[in-house]
Fold this sequence. Notes:
- The complex is a heterodimer.
- Chain A is an alpha+beta fold.
- Chain A is built from 15 helices and ten strands.
- Chain A has two domains: 2-48 and 342-373, Enolase-like, domain 1 (2-Layer Sandwich), CATH 3.30.390; 53-333, Orthogonal Bundle (Cytochrome-c3 Hydrogenase, chain B).
- Chain A has helices at residues 2-8, 53-57, 62-70, 77-92, 98-126, 130-151, 174-197, 199-205, 213-218, 223-227, 235-238, 259-283, 335-348, 356-362, 388-397, and strands spanning 12-17, 29-35, 38-45, 160-161, 164-165, 302-310, 313-321, 327-333, 374-376, 383-385.
- The termini of chain B are far apart.
- The interface between A and B is medium-sized, with 35 and 33 residues.
Amino acid sequence: MAKDNERREKLCYTLPLGPQHPMYVEAENLMVRVDGETITGVEVNIGYMHRGIEELMQRKNYLQGIFLAERICGICSGIHSVTYCEAVENALGIEIPERAKYIRTITLELERLHSHFLFLGVMAYELGLDTGFMYTWRDREHVMDMLETLSGNRVNYGIPTIGGVRRDLPAGEIPGMLKRLEHLRKRAEHYVILFSSDALVRKRTLGKGNLPKGKANSHSIVGPVARASGVNTDIRRDLPYLLYDELEWNVVTRMEGDVQARVMVKAYEIFESISILKQCLNRISRTTPELKTKTSLFVKENEGMSITEAPRGELVYYLVSNGTDRPERMRIRTPTFTNVPSALPIILKGEQLADLPVIVGSVDPCFSCCDRVTIVDERTGESRGVDEAFLRKLGEENGD
Amino acid sequence: MTKLYGEIYRKQGRFVYARVGRKQFMRVMENARKKTGGRISSISGRDAGKSMEILYTFITGEHVVNIKVEVDRRKPVIESVSKLFPAASLYERETYEMLGVLFEGNEELENILLDSKLSPRFPLRKEDKHGKG
C-alpha cells in the first residue's frame, strides 16, 4: 500500500518530444512539462529544418529561385512557387495572362485538396483509425493523378514561371478531372460523417485543444486554425489574388476552436476547393492560349510583395530588387511559423498527455522524432537524465 | 492614411509602403492598432549598407501597409512591438538572430531558428557573406 502511494506520488517531468519522434513527419522539439498525465506547459523549439533558404535565394537568379521556393515544403510546394512568382511580378509591375491565372488557380486548389485529404488521413491515424488513414490517402491519389496530369509530377510541380505558367492544361483532360472531382466530393461527404458522428472520434476531439477566439486574434493565428476559432479570415477573400474574386465560393468557419472544429473546417474546405476547381475547369476553354507575359529577368530597384492563402494559412513573400537578376532580399513568412510556436502552448496546457498527438496534429504542423527523458523536479530544480538501466528497473518494478 | 502611417512613398495595388522615423515609430504602431484593429503579419529586416531597414507588414481589412523604419547599423536598436502584437515576438527574434537588431522590451529575445553556438552570428548581414555564388 505504502509502495503504491509512493508510486502514485506525482513528479513533474519535462518530456522532450523531438527532434526525432515517430509521431511526427519533420524535426521539431516540444519540451512538454507534465504533472502526472496532465500537461502543465509546452515550450516549442523550432529550427531543425532551417536550410538558409532566404540567404540562398540571394545567390540564385529569379528563375532558379522558383524551384528553390518550391522545395521549402513538400505539401505546399505550389503555393510557395506561385507566391514567389507573384512577388517578382509585383516588383516588375506586370500582369500574367488570364489562362495562366486559371492554371495557377487550378494547381493551387488541387494542392489544397491533397493537403486537406492528407490532413484527414493523419488525423485518422493519430486517432488510431488506420483504415481511415488508408481510405483518405487512397482518395488523395485521385488528386495526385490530376496534379501529375497537369504538371508531370506529384510534388514540386514546376508550373509557375515569372510572367505566367510553363505548361498548359490539355482540354482533353478536363472531363476526366471533373469526374474525379465529383467522386472526391462524395468521398468527402463520407469523411464529414466519420469525423463528426463517430463516437470514438467525438470523444477524443470534442472540447480538446481549445483555442479561444481572443487568443487566436491576439497571437495573429492564421489559416484554418484561426477559422476554427471563429476568426473570419481568408486571404483569398480579404486580399484577393488570381481569380478568387471572380469565382463563387465561401469561407468556412467554426466557433468552437477545438480539435473537432479544426477538422471540420478542413473537411468542409474540401467542398469549397472542389467547387472552385469545377468553375475553373468549366471556364478555362474561354481563355486565349497565351500562357506567359514576356519579361526581362532583370528587375529594377523596387519592392514586391505577395500574400496568399496556403493550405495552412497566410503566406507572405517580400522582395527587394536591385536591378540585377538576383534578389537583394527575399523574406518568407510561412503560416506554420506563426501558428505553431504561438498556438501549441495555449491549446496543450491542461490537456492529457495521451491527447497530445491528436491536438498537435490538428494544428497541421510538420514535426519529427525523439530524445530521451530528462526528469526535472520542479520543486527543487534538480534534473537527471534517464538511461536504459533506470527504465528497465521501472519496468521490473511495475511488473511489465 | 498619411497621418496614420507616416510618409507613404509607394502604392502598388493593395500594397502601401510607408516610411516612419525612429522617434515616431511606436506612436504610429499604437495608433495604427487602435484605429484599424489590424495585425502584424511579418517583420522583415534588411542590411541596407549604411543602415538596417526593418519592415513591419501590417494587415488591415483592406490594405497591406508596410511600415519601414531605418536604424543605425552601428547601433541597431528599436522598441519592441511585442506588447502590442504578441505574434511580433517571433518575427523580432528571427530579425535579431539574422541581423543583430535589438528589440528593446522583448523579454524573449533569443535565437529562434539557429543554434547559438554552432551557427554563424547574424548571417544575413552583408559582412558575413563568404562571397556570392
